Amino acid sequence: xxxxxxxxxxxxxxxxxxxxxxxxxxxxxxxxxxxxxxxxxxxxxxxxxxxxxxxxxxxxxxxxxxxxxxxxxxxxxxxxxxxxxxxxxxxxxxxxxxxxxxxxxxxxxxxxxxxxxxxxxxxxxxxxxxxxxxxxxxxxxxxxxxxxxxxxxxxxxxxxxxxxxxxxxxxxxxxxxxxxxxxxxxxxxxxxxxxxxxxxxxxxxxxxxxxxxxxxxxxxxxxxxxxxxxxxxxxxxxxxxxxxxxxxxxxxxxxxxxxxxxxxxxxxxxxxxxxxxxxxxxxxxxxxxxxxxxxxxxxxxxxxxxxxxxxxxxxxxxxxxxxxxxxxxxxxxxxxxx
Length: 338
What we know:
Largest sheet: 9 strands, mixed
Low-confidence stretches: 1-11
Helix content: 25-40%
Structural class: alpha/beta
Strand content: 5-15%
CATH class: Alpha Beta
Oligomer: single chain
Strand order of the largest sheet: 1-2-3-4-5-6-7-8-9
CATH topology: TIM Barrel
Mean pLDDT: 92
Order of helices and strands: HHHHHHEEHEHEHHEHEHEHEE
Number of strands: 9
Radius of gyration: 20 Å
Distance between the termini: 43 Å
């Protein structure tokens, strides 16, 4: 039965986070101007922009140091000429996700859990994104088409966890997000609901009272996995948000991607783990980058990653050391390296 308490949406008027989402920076020239950057030092790639447009929220840009091409946040969003370099082994679909897409909007790669591509869009285009080539056009169901996905989950009692991903599920309106959650809530064998989102980092205003009240009312255990790669992405406002989520029964974890010249040093990763924990977030995964075409300049190899984790293990308590993982096509789960 649908819980009427979560079915009521207060207003159809845009909220502050929606206004921010509708006013993203999409023109590299505007970004250059806002950050006082010399375009001659790192020209943008028209090819990269055509293939994967620039998208970045203004609150995130405010955290980037001006006039600094080496800023770790800027490196994550800038459509660099380096994306044009082709490298052997880097392909459009390194995880062969199209092989695990039995119905529109649903991926079933691992036993016991399915992923719903709840939204075809994000608030930010991370240049290392492993789904930058994903066929969202074929995986953006209408409400009627979502019924096939819900039926698929209903008919497989071995599935006890649903993961909302995308795109970014928190980029959905409350009305659409709550509707999806209500449908999942009616599937009796689903005991855990996991939401993967970068919005709590790039548009912290998304964590508002309506969302908090909603997430605290479903019978499933709710886990929010945020995506933060560097301690400079964290703010005092976010600390308050994560505390409120915990108060509403939501477990908050973080996953990062190990990125060359962004966070591939032990000191950076140690600082990130400490900052996350001070914000009431537990480090969860540190991913080796997926070998996606256009992203080779972010890649760090396994040997270097192991060295970094060894240093972290020597300097941090175990609960602050994320699992180092890689996702390998055809494996039954993420492959834990350390």
